[in-house]
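== Folding the chain ==

***
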Amino acid sequence: MWLVATFTLQAIGTSVTIKIPKSNLNLTQTREYLFIDPVGLMFLLGFASLLLIQFFAMFYHRIYTLIHFVAFVNTESKTERRQSDDDIQIPEMLEDDKYFNTFLSIENPAAIQQHSQETRV
């Protein structure tokens, strides 16, 4: 529908245009006119209005996200906070070198069997 209207108005030519008189720096009108295509003008106005709506909606979203973040900061107790990297406990199995001395692979089935027997509880 939009394409049909655009092509029809372009085929008609300058008979369907908006005439705006030009003026110079002294604000006196010259005998020249500025011709504006109404379809192009509606497209530009629609696009500009959508950009403004999107800008203000994103601004609204950012403000309320900031409010939510500020309200949530420091609300959890210190015991629930994640431990820092220095406080992480390394399991004893990883500290013991006997598990890393033998390379476990398909080519070494004896090491896999030995490892599975050692790790049974």
About this structure: The helical segments are 2-12, 38-72, 92-95, 109-119. Residues 23 and 29 are 4 Å apart (CA to CA). The beta strands are 18-23, 29-36. The chain is about 50% helix and 10% strand.
